[in-house]
């Protein structure tokens, strides 16, 4: 398995920690993504690469009928344990286990960069109704926050190559060109240890050996314990949700 595939499949080994420590998604980003549908009604929504359900639970709370698709068994079991009122199915973006023309919006949370777009885009187009939306979003540290940018630098591992975004989206005849927007979000963490636990759920740290991960965690903790912003009490870590949306055009 090459590094890209190993990283894409790395999350399950830490599924519980992932569910415990990763942030969720801002409602404003979801509503912006759905604007082209021009309705406030309950929609048929697919959360593709749903992981442990961080985005799924916000979609359910928004009142939509949600199907969650996720290839990793451990992530999917965690989702089923934590999120109710959802249809949860094993499957990949390149082969979605859902019939043609049945979905109003496909959401992808912090995972579109793992997809093989040449296969995934036609699959997503197949399940969407005409006028439906594909929306991919990433919640990432706010680059305007100095201590967080330094933390990001300190926590790079030997497999870190480049940051995910902005991900280039292939032009595809079934979709309008993408529109992008960003939304502020935050992630409450009670201690330096809780911030380190969040950082440790990124694939760049999941695929390295324990020795390297422990050395990075020590560095991260020393940094966080030494900073005024992070050493005491709860911190609202500033995040940005970057979103793109594309509309499924009629055949
Ligand atoms: C960073 S996690 C994001 C999970 C969840 N959407 C969230 O926001 O917390 C990336 C997820 O993408 C899944 N994944 C990786 N490659 C995939 C593919 N080709 N098709 C569907 N899911 C994939 C992984 O199993 C993992 O659960």
TrEMBL record:
Location of the Methyltransferase type domain: 46-135
Top-level lineage group: Bacteria
Q: Which SUPFAM superfamilies match?
A: S-adenosyl-L-methionine-dependent methyltransferases (SSF53335)
> Residue span of the signal peptide, if any?
none
Keywords attached to this Swiss-Prot or TrEMBL record, sorted alphabetically, are: Methyltransferase, Transferase
Among the record's GO biological process terms, what is one?
methylation
Family assignment from sequence similarity? Belongs to the methyltransferase superfamily.
- Per its record, how is this protein called by name? Methyltransferase domain-containing protein
- Tell me the organism: Lentzea fradiae
């Amino acid at each position: 398995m090459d590094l890209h595939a190993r990283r894409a499949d790395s999350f399950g080994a830490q599924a519980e920690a992932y569910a415990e420590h990763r942030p969720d998604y801002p409602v404003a980003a979801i509503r912006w993504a759905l604007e082209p549908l021009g309705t406030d009604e309950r929609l048929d929504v697919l959360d593709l690469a749903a992981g442990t359900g961080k985005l799924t639970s916000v979609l359910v709370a928004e009142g939509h009928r949600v199907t969650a698709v996720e290839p990793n068994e451990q992530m999917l079991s965690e989702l089923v344990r934590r999120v109710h009122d959802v249809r949860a199915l094993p499957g990949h973006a390149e082969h979605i286990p859902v019939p043609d023309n049945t979905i109003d919006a496909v959401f992808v949370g912090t995972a579109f960069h793992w997809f093989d777009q040449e296969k995934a885009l036609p699959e997503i187009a197949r399940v969407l109704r005409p006028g439906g939306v594909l929306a991919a979003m990433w919640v990432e540290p706010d680059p305007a926050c100095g201590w967080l940018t330094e933390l990001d630098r300190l926590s790079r591992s030997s497999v870190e190559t480049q940051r995910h975004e902005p991900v280039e989206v292939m032009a595809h005849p079934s979709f309008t060109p993408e529109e992008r927007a960003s939304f502020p979000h935050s992630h409450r963490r009670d201690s330096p240890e809780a911030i380190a636990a969040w950082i440790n759920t990124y694939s760049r740290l999941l695929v390295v050996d324990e020795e390297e991960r422990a050395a990075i965690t020590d560095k991260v903790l020393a940094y966080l314990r030494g900073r005024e912003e992070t050493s005491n009490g709860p911190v609202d870590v500033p995040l940005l949700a970057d979103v793109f949306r594309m509309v499924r055009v009629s055949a």
